[in-house]
Amino acid sequence: MTLSNGAANGIQSTEGSKANAILNTPKGYRPLERVEPVPKPGFPHHLYPRWIGHKFDTDGKIMSYPGNGVLSPLNTASDLHHALHDLLADIQKQDWASLYTFLPPSSWHMTTYEGISDQIRHREQWPAGLPTSSSLKACHAHVATRLADLQHGLGDEPLQIKVAGFESLADGIALRLEPVTAEGELALRNLRDQLSERLSVRHPVHDKYSFHMGMGYLLRYLSTEDETKITKFLQGWLTKLPATFELAVPEYCVYDNMYAFRRVFYLD
Fold first, then answer.
1. Antiparallel, parallel or unpaired: β 212-218 and 172-179
2. N or C: less crowded end of the chain, CB within 10 Å?
3. Domains, the chain
4. pLDDT value at position 264?
5. DSSP states of 174-242 as a string?
């Protein structure tokens, strides 16, 4: 598992801390390299991981964070869903569990395309031809129109996905996912390209996007001791998770927050 930002030595440099405090951004804030939330005036973002103050408050309570995207929900009857239930129950018994706020199992999914966030209205991350001042309702309708006849191109049989490990701990706890075959990887990347082209929105590191399934968001930065402990715990769980699972048909979804994703339609 890759160590989280700044956790290799467990602390941030004094100069780095001062710079982030002045800019009021989280450690490792890099909007040119990945989708980053826009800092809110008055919130001390430099003290918290990047999604706190946006998707969740400092106590882990859900916040409004509306948007849309293309995702595949995890089948509730799958072996992986059952195993992740057990993993979540085990995590919640650990002394470090309070460092996280967890997603309900009903929201577990793999994102194919990040879509549009109401709170990130940069021109380059907003559909071309749609004013950045447009209502979210108008944006949802615009995206739906653009994607209505798009074919996913993943084949007639469900795409096989493998659990390749865990993502960096910088933002939270999430499985890192990869298609089992090179053909599957190409098909999934081609679908991302089509979605990007239809909306004229190419998110940062589009080609290197890491497919994942989030379970929980980090509320506080981890100490070296916590990171080592959590990394060891998660590595121990890898052998207990199913090696592969079937990816559900991608759906165009809209959402109000991270607890529920409402399907508008399946991609053909």
1. antiparallel
2. C
3. 66-266 (3.90.1140.10)
4. 98
5. EEEEEESSHHHHHHHHHHHHHHHHHHT---TTGGG---EEEEEEESSPPPHHHHHHHHHHHHHHHTTS-
Question: CA-to-CA distance for 156 and 144, rounded, in angstroms?
Answer: 23
**Mean pLDDT confidence for 193-206:** 93
Q: Which residues pair with 183 in a beta bridge?
A: none
Strand order across the beta sheet in which 251-257 lies: 109-117, 67-73, 251-257, 260-266
Q: Residue 108: name the closest of 221, 216, 207 by CA.
A: 216
Radius of gyration (C-alpha) of the chain in whole angstroms: 18
Rounded to whole angstroms, how far apart are CA atoms 238 and 259? 25
80 and 195 Cβ atoms separated by less than 8 Å: no
Q: What is the pLDDT of residues 209-248, one digit of tens each?
A: 999 999 999 999 999 999 999 999 999 999 999 999 999 9
User: Does residue 145 sit in helix, strand or coil?
Assistant: helix
pLDDT the model gives residue 35:
86
**pTM for this predicted structure:** 0.89
Token pair, residue 111, equals: 């994102």
Query: Rounded to whole angstroms, how far apart are CA atoms 162 and 176?
Result: 9
pLDDT beyond 90 at 183:
yes
β-bridge partners, 109: 73
